[in-house]
């Protein structure tokens, strides 16, 4: 009984967090249907916007590779097998095809998904990494079949999404630089970091010290956007899986400050 109450309480917190974050993120752009879809995805799959499990792009929701892997972990997936389909691959033109099989249970025959990639169906941002894109797409399709997810994944898109904004949100938006701006429709990195700190009750100053050390820069402000984004993703995962271990690590920075003084 207590476990059920705790689970319902966590779900309620996640629902409120996703709705609040989505509304703040999209500045009123989300309509009733999109919000209803958001609630259904949260209840059914426990997807989190803060952790980047899914995104709202060009008027629709898309699941992410990270979100699918976290879902598989929660559902106790026993394994994922990936193989290259050699007869359809042509390295000379960077064309790759993979077959992925997801095994939800030990006795499962597996759910199969195929993924292909070549320079014509991937974003220019990932040209040269078509093999990895094809593998990721195969895994995503297999996971979506295994867990009954009708949403397309972001990695399966053959284009670089540029979400539309309302005129008001465009005027009020901050420049997309550092940790303050939007990037491909994602929430501001500063907002994500602040939300993580509040959600897991972390010491902001110690988190900043950890972030600077993680990024290899004197201060967090001097870090590149991709470094900060990688840190936030890692912090979210560590906080969710091993908060006590994370707190011990953060406390080590407090001791360093005392020694420095």
Describe what you observe in this structure.
With 261 residues, the chain is mostly helical. The protein folds into three domains: 1-50; 51-164, Double Stranded RNA Binding Domain, CATH 3.30.160.20; 178-260, no CATH class. Helices cover 50% and strands 11% of the residues. The chain has nine helices and five strands; from the N terminus they run ααββαβββαααααα. Strands 3-4-5 form a three-stranded antiparallel sheet. A two-stranded antiparallel ribbon has the order 1-2. Helix 6 (189-199) runs parallel beside helix 8 (225-241) and helix 8 (225-241) crosses helix 9. Residues 162-186 have low confidence and may be disordered.
Topology:
Layout: H1 2-26, H2 32-45, E1 54-57, E2 60-63, H3 65-74, E3 79-84, E4 96-103, E5 111-117, H4 130-146, H5 167-172, H6 189-199, H7 204-215, H8 225-241, H9 243-260
Antiparallel strand pairs: 1-2, 3-4, 4-5
Helix pairs in contact: 1-2, 3-4, 6-8, 7-9, 8-9
The CATH architecture of the largest domain: 2-Layer Sandwich
CATH C-level category of the largest domain: Alpha Beta
Number of domains: 3
Main sheet record: 3 strands, antiparallel
Report the C-alpha radius of gyration, rounded: 20 Å
Question: Oligomeric state of the chains?
Answer: single chain
* Poorly predicted segments: 162-186
Contiguous helical run count: 9
Estimated share of beta-strand residues: 5-15%
H and E string: HHEEHEEEHHHHHH
The pLDDT mean sits at: 81
* Number of strand segments: 5
Q: In what order do the strands lie side by side in the largest sheet? A: 3-4-5
Tell me roughly what share of residues is in helical segments.
40-55%
Briefly note the CATH topology name of the largest domain. Answer: Double Stranded RNA Binding Domain
Q: What would you call the shape?
A: globular
Terminus-to-terminus distance? 51 Å
Structural class: mainly alpha
